[in-house]
Amino acid sequence: MNFSQTPLIKPAQHAEHHIVASILDGTWPPGTLLPAERDLAARLGITRQTLRETLQRLARDRWITISHGKPTVVNDYWQAGGMAMLKTMADFPEFLPPECVVHLLEARAVFLPACAEKAVPAHPELFLSLLETADTLNEDPAAFAEYDWDLQMRMARASHNLIYPLFLNDFEPVFAALGGHYFTEKKGRDASRRYYKSLSNAIGRKKKVAPVVRQAMEESIEIWKACQHT
């Protein structure tokens, strides 16, 4: 790992970026003892105080474990980490294992139908109005990604469950990165158009929306898998 400091970012940001990158790229795998504070600060070109603050933030997010009088150890972040790691990992997509994306989409397939089942019946007109605008979407992948994310967030916020928006907010950076790739595929855009239409029909007929959302989420997983093999 090259520790030369990137210009135009704060020393603490520089330190955090390089420590996390070193963990994700395998330079410091889980179980590794980090270099002594003095040595690590010198290698990163920052003060020891800045390093301490950085390490405390990383410990809070469970990348590392700090024990008084002992070396700092790198955690098994997939097992010990929390949702906050998703935001950080979005900055390092090249280090994410292929199955990570599928697992993330599988989590959404469990979460979003329950979210929709609470939100849509309580606010049918809001969602019918939003879904009507889907017909105006052009073939721009960025426009699809933005619209799709907005629909998910509206479901979370309208569910009146305080945890749903917090949960989905942590996915935003990752889905923003994924959406641009997914919607470059015509089959992804076509599947979403079918989903929006089916969802609108279910709302208009006062049918349960969870099965519609679940089917669409499961289809998106299969489309993503197929795209990775083409």
TrEMBL record:
Organism: Desulfosudis oleivorans (strain DSM 6200 / JCM 39069 / Hxd3) (Desulfococcus oleovorans)
Signal peptide start-end: none
Pfam families: FadR_C, GntR
Record keyword DNA-binding present: yes
Gene Ontology MF term list: DNA binding; DNA-binding transcription factor activity; fatty-acyl-CoA binding
Keyword Transcription: yes
Top-rank taxon: Bacteria
Gene Ontology biological-process annotations: regulation of fatty acid metabolic process
Keyword terms of this UniProt record: DNA-binding, Transcription, Transcription regulation
InterPro entries, A to Z: FadR_C, TF_FadR/GntR_C, Tscrpt_reg_HTH_GntR, WH-like_DNA-bd_sf, WH_DNA-bd_sf
UniProt name for this protein: Regulatory protein GntR HTH
HTH gntR-type domain span: 9-77
